[in-house]
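Re: the request from the purification team.
They wanted to know what the chain is likely to look like in 3D before they choose a buffer screen. I agreed to run a prediction and write the result into the notebook, where they can find it.
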Amino acid sequence: MFKRLLLMLPTFVVAALFILLTGDCTGRTDNSSAVPRRTAYPRIELYDSVYRQVSPTLPVRIMVNDSTTVDIASHGDVATWIDVRYPRYGATLRLTLSRLEGDSLFTAIANRRERIALNAGGLRSTVTELTAPNGLSSEIVATPGAMVTPLQIIATDSTGLLFTGALEMPPALPGNDAEYYMPIVEGVERDLIHMAKNLTAE
């Protein structure tokens, strides 16, 4: 009787009944949520390795990437503050050039080294040491895990000039994604190395 009834029904109705009757008989229900895929951010395009001098009036030759914008503020003969902004990156390299005498220089160097260690926060760091011909001896400290200040520099001629700086990253990067973040650090580190190699007294 049941077979005869099936033969009398349209084909699409039979198919629908088959699906209903032969559905998942295991009793399992899938309550799991799909794991969201990791967002892929486009790799930021780095600036070219083209450089210019900040200002010939400064006592030290400071070379910066030609695509940056620079703001200079002086505090008499004691210190000069230089903000080097990377518009595409949203990051700023904050530099300070100081003239100090006697023990004040060595105290300032010690204080700055302490600040560098605090900014690194105990994270793994690498130090690149460079000396410009007839110029300043520099240390570039790279701490990739430090999201706020991943790059720092300290340089001195040991006779009165102290040059320090730190890269400040934008307050919010896309998901703090390393694929977006690390190329910026690498690009600015390249610029810092060029700067350190050319830190000569004017």
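For the purification team: Residues 113 and 154 are 8 Å apart (CA to CA).
Please add any questions underneath this entry.
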